[in-house]
Specification:
Layout: H1 6-25, E1 39-43, E2 48-52, E3 56-61, E4 66-71, E5 76-78, E6 81-85, E7 89-94, E8 98-99, E9 106-115, E10 118-128, E11 136-143, E12 146-147, E13 155-159, E14 162-166, E15 171-179, E16 182-185, E17 189-190, H2 197-209, E18 212-218, E19 224-227, E20 233-239
Antiparallel strand pairs: 1-2, 1-10, 2-3, 3-4, 5-6, 6-7, 7-9, 8-9, 9-10, 11-12, 11-13, 11-20, 13-14, 14-15, 15-16, 15-17, 16-18, 18-19, 19-20
Length: 240
């Protein structure tokens, strides 16, 4: 048999390399987070906090009485989740929604940590929106994609078909109904206090949003986004 020519060898190598590269991209990521991301989990009784990024795992347990800081390790796929095993820490992340037993806030993952032989369970990952707007309280983060005044308190509460709170100056009260992802507001009554020009302008923009029908949706982080057909928009963060 004649030896394979150099040109034919080069062609075969060029054909095989993309296939191998494609296989490599199918492997799951072994890092807990990318360089600019931090995975956070926490629990109660006793209070504990876990933070992981691509370089470090930091755990505080027993209300800060136990502190473990170690280099990040490879995660191993487990049943519906990932497991990270070190000498002092074993971390199991299960992709199953979890509600914090004190605040009621919902998260994407259930997290169990064994730290120096002691096991705790709590919630981690991204925040999930509440199952219902009823009996929830929010603060306003942005109006028309501009941050609200930092030194001014805002509060929006939904309860039993009523909306109340403040957009930065006057107290407001009114009614609302909800069908699917659409909110319909009735007349909103407010007190008649005078505040700074900036506070009054912020309040006016928010009240303009509450006239008629408003579409609601949630961001990846669980923030509530309200918008109407005229382009008015507000982003709110749940207060627990």
């Amino acid at each position: 048999m004649k030896p394979m020519s150099i040109s034919r060898s080069v062609i075969l190598i060029m054909l095989v390399l993309p296939v191998l590269g494609g296989c490599q991209t199918m492997l799951p990521s072994a890092e807990p987070a990318t360089v600019d991301q931090v995975y956070t989990a926490r629990g109660n009784e006793p209070g504990w906090l876990l933070k992981m990024d691509s370089k470090t795992i930091a755990y505080e347990g027993d209300y800060g009485g136990t502190k473990i800081n170690i280099p990040a390790v490879e995660g191993r796929p487990s049943f519906n989740g990932m497991r990270y095993i070190t000498e002092r820490l074993t971390i199991d992340i299960t992709y199953s929604s979890c509600a914090d037993d004190m605040s009621g806030k919902r998260f994407a993952d259930t997290v169990t940590v064994i730290a120096d032989g002691r096991q705790v369970t709590g919630c981690g990952g991204r925040a999930l929106p509440p199952e219902s707007l009823n009996d929830t309280t929010w603060k306003i983060l942005m109006i028309d994609q501009l941050p609200v005044l930092q030194d001014v308190k805002t509060e929006v509460r939904f309860a039993d078909g009523k909306i109340s709170g403040t957009a930065g100056c006057n107290r407001m009260n009114g009614s609302y109904s909800i069908a699917s992802n659409v909110l319909s507001f009735g007349d909103i009554a407010t007190t008649r206090m005078m505040c700074s020009e900036k506070q009054m302008a912020q309040e006016a923009k928010f009240l303009a949003l509450l006239k008629g029908k408003v579409t609601k949706r949630y961001s990846v982080s669980g923030d509530l986004i309200l918008s109407d057909e005229k382009g008015n928009r507000a982003t709110l963060q749940q207060v627990l």
